[in-house]
Amino acid sequence: MKYIAQFNNWFNTKLGWFFTNGNKYNAYLSIAKEKSKPKYTLKRLNDGLTHNGNKIQYINWSGNREEHTSHNSIKVGRSLILDPGTNFTWLTTTITEIIEQREGYIKFQTKNSTYELKENTNG
């Protein structure tokens, strides 16, 4: 039994695999990882659709809708993008009104919908 434990330890260290009761497991896939809570929750109030993400930006579109600039603050005329990048999570239409804004919370109207953006606390 001592030699099996030594072998498992060596094998896991070198190759990331271990054996238990004759079954082979990948050590890196077997360790349960705690998922972190997303930093932001965006809720469309019209239908309750909710998206979560870890980063937001506000996009200011140019006339041709292909060129844009990114900003960290909300402003009428910009769109909110959740998790910006190639595979973004959500993009709103242009913001037409900021209804309410306080620490960790923004309620705003776009051309099509009303949204709430909440910053989640990790507590």
**Which class of secondary structure composition applies to the elements?**
mainly beta
Strand order of the largest sheet: 4-3-11-10-9
Total number of strands: 11
Shape: elongated
The radius of gyration over CA amounts to 23 Å
Overall tally of domains: 2
Secondary-structure element sequence? Answer: HEEHEEEEEEEEE
The number of helical runs is 2
- Major sheet attributes: 5 strands, antiparallel
Fraction of residues in β-strands: 35-45%
- Overall average pLDDT: 81
Low-confidence stretches: none
Distance between termini? 44 Å
Assign a percent range to the helix content. Answer: 10-25%
Task: Write a concise keyword list for the protein shown above.
mainly beta; single chain; 2 domains; elongated; 123 residues; four-stranded antiparallel beta sheet; five-stranded antiparallel beta sheet
Structure commentary:
By secondary structure, this protein is mainly β. The chain has 2 domains: 1-33, no CATH class; 40-119, no CATH class. It has helices at 2-15, 27-30, and strands spanning 17-20, 23-26, 40-44, 50-53, 56-61, 68-71, 78-82, 90-91, 95-102, 105-110, 114-119. The strands form 3 sheets. A 5-stranded antiparallel β-sheet has the order 4-3-11-10-9, with no helix packed on it. A hairpin with a 2-residue loop joins strand 9 (95-102) and strand 10 (105-110). The longest helix is centred in the N-terminal third of the chain and has 14 residues, at 2-15. The mean pLDDT is 81.
